[in-house]
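Appendix B, Record 12. Input sequence as logged:
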Amino acid sequence: MLASGGGQRAAEGLVGSLYQMAKEDMLDTVLYLGGVSGSTWTLIIV
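Logged structural output:
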């Protein structure tokens, strides 16, 4: 899964995507998470 940059909006968007994927039991199908700019802050927390 690749997340885009864009500061705080990108971080919040990725949190929402990861949350929904976890809710639907799809998160365990992701092998790699990658991102740039703002989305990397979300990846650090995950």
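The beta strands are 2-3, 34-35.
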